[in-house]
């Protein structure tokens, strides 16, 4: 499956952004989807995941501020980010996985990755 992330940009602290990840190729509904981010000089960090059954998981930094959702007919997963902070700055990647067992926060368990979209939050 091919993934194309978009929606990043520059926003002030306290603002909002909605990221999109459009999937093409294989059946979108067959995959669990995740968002990760990577700040400059830091390791990739789990942000959120949504299962094909629509169950959701969030990293500690995203809880209460971010919402992940998916639109099956549009083959798209979204990440609504509210109350953004400067520490949310980084490149955001969407990813897809076919396996249903394992930690959803483990990037090694994802099979396909998008190219990333830059999010910059100014103070």
Description:
With 123 residues, the protein is mostly beta strands. It contains no helices and 11 strands. The protein has strands at residues 2-6, 9-12, 17-24, 32-38, 45-50, 56-58, 66-71, 76-81, 90-97, 112-113, 117-122. Strand 4 and strand 5 (45-50) form a beta hairpin. The radius of gyration is 13 Å and the shape is globular.
Structural class: mainly beta
Radius of gyration: 13 Å
The proportion of strand residues reads over 45%
- Please tell me the overall pLDDT: 95
Low-confidence spans: pLDDT under 50, at least 5 residues?
none
The arrangement of helices and strands along the chain is EEEEEEEEEEE
Net shape: globular
Terminal CA distance: 37 Å
Helix fraction by DSSP (H/I, runs of at least 4): under 10%
Compile the SSE list and pairings:
Elements lengths: L1 E5 L2 E4 L4 E8 L7 E7 L6 E6 L5 E3 L7 E6 L4 E6 L8 E8 L14 E2 L3 E6 L1
Parallel strand pairs: 2-11
Antiparallel strand pairs: 1-3, 3-8, 4-5, 4-9, 5-6, 7-8, 9-10, 9-11
């Amino acid at each position: 499956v091919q993934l194309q992330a978009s929606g990043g940009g520059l926003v002030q602290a306290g603002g909002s952004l909605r990221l999109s990840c459009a999937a093409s190729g294989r059946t979108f509904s067959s995959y669990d989807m995740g968002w990760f981010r990577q700040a400059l000089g830091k390791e990739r960090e789990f942000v959120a995941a949504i299962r094909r059954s629509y169950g959701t998981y969030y990293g500690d930094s995203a809880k209460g501020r971010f919402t992940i959702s998916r639109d099956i007919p549009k083959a798209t997963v979204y990440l609504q980010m509210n109350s953004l902070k400067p520490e949310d700055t980084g490149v955001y990647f969407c990813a897809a996985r076919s396996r249903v067992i394992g930690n959803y926060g483990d990037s090694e368990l994802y099979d396909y990755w998008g190219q990333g979209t830059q999010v910059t939050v100014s103070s």
